[in-house]
Amino acid sequence: MKDDCLFCKIIKGEIPSEKVYEDEFVLAFRDINPAAPIHILVIPKKHIDSLAGLENEDKEYVWKIHEAMNKIAEQENFKEDGFRVIVNCGKDAGQEVMHLHYHLLAGQKMGDKIV
């Protein structure tokens, strides 16, 4: 964990969040600035800067994140209607917090809208 990372502070409970899912590898919570009716951030509990920073030993975290997103979609009742997953990698792609995170969006027809 990094002391100056917003998401690491959320994982440690130093900053409150509206959690929707948690296990030993993953934390998921509602985005405070939602871009869709349902906007959940899904993060690994290990600090990884971005997709570009993935190491071989991070494979289990990536799998657990994807597994968690399916569990969340079922738990929140949007799996059948569908959802969008967005991962921004680096500042030019719009990544604002340098901790790997997945945006899980649902609750509306997405069309070509890109967040």
Brief summary:
The chain has 115 residues and is α+β, with helices and mostly antiparallel strands. 20% of the residues lie in helices and 21% in strands.
Task: Give structural notes.
The mean pLDDT is 94. The chain has one domain: HIT family, subunit A (2-Layer Sandwich), CATH 3.30.428. The protein starts with 5 loop residues before the first helix and ends in a 9-residue tail after the last strand. 19% of the residues are buried. The protein is an alpha+beta fold and 115 residues long. Strands 1-2-3-5-4 form a five-stranded antiparallel sheet, covered by helices on one side. The protein has two helices and five strands, in the order αβββαββ. A hairpin with a 7-residue loop joins strand 2 and strand 3.
Main sheet, how many strands, which sense, barrel?
5 strands, antiparallel
Order of strands, widest sheet: 1-2-3-5-4
Query: How would you name the CATH homologous superfamily?
Result: HIT-like
* CATH architecture classification: 2-Layer Sandwich
At the first level of CATH, the class is Alpha Beta
Order of helices and strands: HEEEHEE
Kindly name the structural category: alpha+beta
Assembly type: single chain
Radius of gyration: 14 Å
* Helix count from the secondary structure assignment: 2
Overall helicity: 10-25%
End-to-end separation in angstroms reads 27 Å
**Binned strand content:** 15-25%
Overall number of domains: 1
Mean pLDDT: 94
According to CATH, the fold-level topology is: HIT family, subunit A
Shape: globular
